[in-house]
Amino acid sequence: MLGRTCAEDVFDVAVIGGGVVGCAVMRRFALAGAKAVLIEAAPDILAGASKANSAILHTGFDAPPGSLEWQLMQAGYREYLDIHAAYNLPLLQTGALVCAWNEDEAARLEGIVAQARLNNVADVRPLGAGVARALVPGLSPRLVDAVEVPGEYVIDPWSAPLAYLNQAVALGAKLLFNAELLAGQFDGTWQLQTKAGAVRAAAVVNTAGLYGDVVDARLGFTPEFTIKPRKGQFVVFDKATARHVPCIILPVPSETTKGIVLCPTAFGNVLVGPTAEEQEDRTRATVEAETLTALIRRAAEIVPALAEMPVTAVYAGLRPATETKAYRVASRPEQRAITLGGVRSTGLTAALGLAGHALSLHAQFGTALPAAPPVVPPVRLPNLAESRPRDWQQQGCGEIVCHCEMVTRREIEAALASAVPPGDFGGLKRRTRAGLGRCQGFYCNARLAAMTQGRLRTPLAVPAEGG
Amino acid sequence: MGDAADVIVVGSGPAGVAAAVELRRNGVERVVLLEREADLGGATRHCSHSPFGMREFGRVYSGPAYARRLAAEAVRHGVTIRAGYSVVSLHEDARLTVACNGVVSELEAKRIIVATGAREASRAARLLPGDRPVGVLSTGALQSYVALHGLMPFRRPVILGSELVTFSAVLTCLRHGARPVAVVETLPYALARAPASWFPGLLGIPFFRGAELLDIQGRARVENIRISHGGNLRDIACDGVLVTGRFLPEASLFLNSGMGLAQGAQAPAIDQDGRCANPLYFACGNVLRAVETGGWAFREGRAIGAAVARDLAHPVAVQRVAVEFAPPIKLVVPGYVRAGDATTGALGEFQLRFTARVRGELSLELDGVPVWARRREFLPERRVLVPMPAGLQAAQRISFCFREG
Ligand SMILES: Cc1cc2nc3c(=O)[nH]c(=O)nc-3n(C[C@H](O)[C@H](O)[C@H](O)COP(=O)(O)OP(=O)(O)OC[C@H]3O[C@@H](n4cnc5c(N)ncnc54)[C@H](O)[C@@H]3O)c2cc1C
Ligand SMILES: Cc1cc2nc3c(=O)[nH]c(=O)nc-3n(C[C@H](O)[C@H](O)[C@H](O)COP(=O)(O)OP(=O)(O)OC[C@H]3O[C@@H](n4cnc5c(N)ncnc54)[C@H](O)[C@@H]3O)c2cc1C
């Protein structure tokens, strides 16, 4: 077998794309002993779909029964519950209410409960509008009926993949940024051309999200699917809203989408979204004023107190949808290639499950990985969740740089000096929350520009004229 | 912390410092000034351009020099200064939760004055469309780049807005090697008066009024914006978008502490002494109505500081009447009138703002009887002052009315 014969410069696995799925795959393979390399086109991880989602850890209660998606969501869900404490990742056990706003929707709740049972989510139960409104007094009196899903949780969507990748790095994995994969040939090993140079690897895992089909083609395969990006826009309300929305408020889903959700965030805000808008473009996740206004209106229909609440942030993400609903997972043992594609709208939940699945597919390639590492170095992420102590509450933290999100200078410096430092300003925000609060940088943007000089691919401050 | 202060002032801009100093001048012993930044002065620290201080100190200062003068005044008058202290929450009983260098503690006082200023509405809060690249920021941030760090965030920005601060931003750009490529205002007219609004024209910078921003484009940094103007789509290449004006009170302490904000103003409602709904709390400066000049904030702070000193010496049983108004009137400060006793308050005038450009008659009615009226045009973001009439504190109903035409 080829495997490790060609010395140090052949990786056991090259993971193409550092979204949440790629980061989880890196961790899983590194834990299994593989020498892994991440090939990422952007200056930082989470440049694609994984940058902008609802941050819900789903039970899979409404997934297609028996599907791979359902199976991997539940595997991912379980593993997250197992590992989050060790990585210092938050878990907000909010639960969810599926709310019916008219008789039509109410009639479909029974089916939802039945499907949840079929999906092994046994604690889903009908509540009735009265009990639901007692639990969430802010809900509009127009509520007709509701079902409770106690196991739907909220997590930090950025720290989780960062933790996975940090674990891989602590085990010796390599990261290549600004390294778009351009082409690959398999001649017993993979020869991969990237914008950051050539890479050789025994196996590849394509986790390129919105470019899953493109990367398959660049690896010389005939893609089995076409990505059809589906945009979701969000509005994030001020933290003062949090008391009105203590749990996830889901609509009765339709055939095509999970619908507009009201959801607490790990950081103490409330978000409303996402929309579901098909588009051709794979790069632009724009926001539109009318859509955002409609989202705010919708939020206020569900919880009337939100009508008066200030908006903190707006954003949009692109789901890597395809022609069908299902995950597009392919394994090509002859070429030792795995594609984890079309992970449309449940990838944050399923990432750890997908990673385990990829490892089991790899086991069928017949190329044994080196022995698993005897010791797994512990990795702990700084906590950014409002529900648990933050750095500003720790003695000696020094000054606060971002007042809205209470981010200390020490936290920012630690992120810049960390094993996986931010490659761009978005990456710094996701790692520290600096600039993500209600003033959106009115107070701290200049300070952040000064602190990050020479550190980010796109600097906040432009070079001096003529300099 | 056991040893309670007499008064804690939150925020060390012109309003907070003036209030603290005035309290000391009125013999109040323990006056503590809390400021979350390392230096005092608030927004004036980075207003490097404009004349500050003429009326209060009898000479002209740049913003940063004025900020230093404020700090010196606070020291000279024996105010206890606590910089690097962030107030995290307000409690009903005049206790504050405060954080400093990782130590979270509670401070209490007989009265609290909140003077936390104002900020510009962010790009997100305005629901502006498009990508979200680097290079979109507010004037406050631009001024901080220049004045506090010697940096520039862009070279060829498009500037959104048409308030005074907008034209001051144009100047800041020009003085620091950036050349604005356009000024864009959604309204059909400039919010600032001439001559400020002539400014872009004189400098040869296109000034699009009545333009709608349709898109901000850019992958990493801003590359282009698209506007619709006079029925045409227009692309403007640029490397930044400066989002100016539309000031909002920095009133999140009130909002998050469940103390509530006044209708329209998104600010704590006060009476003519600066007293909030909870009579242990007072507020002054930009937190009341968003932006005013530094000098205005200073005078208001001084007047409300004196009122708090009076309140400590002779507490009044507070009975108040809410001032009624409706759109197009956006806000009225003070929003309450302390009723009953006839002592004059800290504020001798009502300040109103409008939501839109309107022409018509504005009147003040006491118990349904008009006591003051003016017919003219009113513009958004412009200060409208109405003197408090005799008999105000005896009125059961106080209302501002507007009739178009
Ligand atoms: C609006 C919205 C809401 C969602 N809500 C939830 C939720 O609440 N819960 C949940 O579980 N899931 C949710 N999801 C789904 C989840 O976000 C996605 O399933 C997940 O992010 C997909 O991750 P990925 O790693 O497959 O793809 P991506 O995150 O897109 O990662 C792909 C990476 O590959 C890189 N790449 C692309 N091409 C190349 C190349 N040629 N060379 C090198 N690198 C390349 C990209 O730069 C990118 O970093 C939501 C998604 C959206 C859009
Ligand atoms: C961009 C910009 C341009 C301006 N240009 C001019 C001009 O040209 N001419 C002019 O006369 N005026 C100008 N002004 C207005 C002038 O600066 C303000 O009117 C004045 O500073 C307001 O004073 P203030 O005391 O109300 O608030 P601020 O000066 O804003 O001070 C508020 C203080 O409160 C502190 N604070 C807030 N929250 C907390 C908390 N939770 N804990 C502790 N401390 C807190 C802040 O750090 C700040 O120091 C400008 C303002 C801005 C923002």
Describe the structure.
The complex is a heterodimer of chains A (467) and B (405). Chain A is of the alpha+beta class and 467 residues long. Chain A has three domains: 10-52 and 158-225 and 324-363, 3-Layer(bba) Sandwich (FAD/NAD(P)-binding domain), CATH 3.50.50; 91-154 and 228-319, D-Amino Acid Oxidase, Chain A, domain 2 (2-Layer Sandwich), CATH 3.30.9.10; 391-452, no CATH class. Chain A is 27% helix and 21% strand. Chain A is built from eleven helices and 21 strands. In chain A, strands 1, 2, 8, 9, 10, 11, 18 and 19 form an eight-stranded mixed sheet that branches. In chain A, strands 12, 14, 15, 16 and 17 form a five-stranded antiparallel sheet that branches. Chain A has a four-stranded mixed sheet with strand order 5-6-4-13, sandwiched between helices. Chain B has three domains: 1-119 and 247-318, 3-Layer(bba) Sandwich (FAD/NAD(P)-binding domain); 122-245, FAD/NAD(P)-binding domain, CATH 3.50.50.60; 319-405, Sandwich (Immunoglobulin-like), CATH 2.60.40. Chain B contains eight helices and 25 strands. Chain B has helices at 14-25, 54-57, 63-76, 139-149, 164-175, 199-202, 252-256, 294-313, and strands at 5-10, 31-35, 80-83, 86-91, 95-100, 103-114, 118-120, 136-138, 157-160, 182-184, 207-208, 211-217, 224-229, 232-237, 240-243, 247-249, 281-283, 320-324, 329-333, 336-338, 349-354, 358-366, 369-378, 384-387, 398-404. In chain B, strands 1, 2, 3, 4, 5, 6 and 17 form a seven-stranded mixed sheet that branches. Chain B has a five-stranded parallel sheet with strand order 8-15-9-10-11. The chains are: A alpha+beta (467), B alpha/beta (405). The structure holds flavin-adenine dinucleotide (2 copies).
State the helical fraction of chain A.
25-40%
Oligomerization state of this entry? Answer: heterodimer
Strand content of chain A: 15-25%
Largest sheet of chain B: 7 strands, mixed
Computed over alpha carbons, the radius of gyration of chain A is 22 Å
CATH topology of the largest domain in chain A: D-Amino Acid Oxidase, Chain A, domain 2
